[in-house]
């Protein structure tokens, strides 16, 4: 029986190396493209609403340029004690963010959205809870020296040296890395993508 193959070209609306590594693991052919969107959202939105809105905005932006393709968009925010943390703009901001996370539990929310031909749009939001060890100031500075905080909501990467910050993780680890693969696979299967295709 012939494998039906994918329903069309697939784009990941992101150039994140962590997201690309997770997508590569699926073995599906896809391309990446930066969405290039305004990431501002209304202040009254919750973190869950914000990541859902931005994932849709990113997927739609790339889909407008490739209307016959399927586009997967994602966005991530860190939430601690009701406050949302995005990407730090410099080392001082990263130090302040990590200072709020160390010794405490926080949530990571990632919104994913799959947009396809004919107005297809499905989405999901995944949440993972993490608890960090408390660190003395000199150890925090050594972590900041790694530069892993750059471009990361919450100022850390669990796929790198940041995993040494983790005391506890509840939920999907891939969600923390930027792309929750459980809902991603579900959305792709619902859209008719075939896995384990022969070359």
From TrEMBL:
Q: What is its main location?
A: cytoplasm
UniProt keyword terms in alphabetical order: Cytoplasm, Hydrolase, Nucleotide metabolism
**Where does it reside?**
Cytoplasm
Cofactor (UniProt) = a divalent metal cation
So what family is this one in? Belongs to the Maf family.
What the entry lists under PANTHER family is as follows: 7-METHYL-GTP PYROPHOSPHATASE, BIFUNCTIONAL DTTP/UTP PYROPHOSPHATASE/METHYLTRANSFERASE PROTEIN-RELATED
Q: What is this protein called?
A: Nucleoside triphosphate pyrophosphatase
The source organism is: Corallococcus praedator
Taxonomic lineage of the native organism: Bacteria, Pseudomonadati, Myxococcota, Myxococcia, Myxococcales
């Amino acid at each position: 029986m012939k494998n039906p193959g994918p329903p069309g070209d697939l784009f990941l609306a992101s150039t994140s190396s962590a997201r690309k590594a997770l997508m590569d693991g699926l073995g599906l052919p896809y391309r990446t493209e930066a969405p290039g969107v305004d990431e501002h959202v209304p202040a009254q939105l919750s973190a869950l609403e914000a990541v859902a809105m931005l994932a849709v905005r990113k997927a739609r932006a790339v889909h407008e340029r490739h209307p016959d393709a399927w586009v997967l968009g994602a966005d991530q925010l860190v939430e601690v004690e009701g406050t949302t943390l995005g990407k730090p703009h410099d080392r001082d901001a990263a130090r302040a963010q990590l200072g709020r996370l160390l010794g405490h539990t926080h949530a990571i929310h990632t919104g994913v959205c799959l947009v396809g031909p004919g107005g297809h749009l499905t989405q999901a939001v995944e949440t993972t809870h993490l608890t960090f060890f408390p660190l003395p100031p000199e150890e925090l500075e050594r972590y900041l020296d790694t530069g892993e905080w750059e471009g990361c909501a919450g100022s850390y990467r669990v796929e790198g040296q940041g995993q040494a910050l983790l005391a506890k993780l509840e939920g999907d680890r891939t969600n923390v890395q930027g792309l929750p693969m459980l809902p991603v696979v579900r959305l792709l299967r619902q859209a008719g993508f075939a896995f384990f295709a022969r070359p």
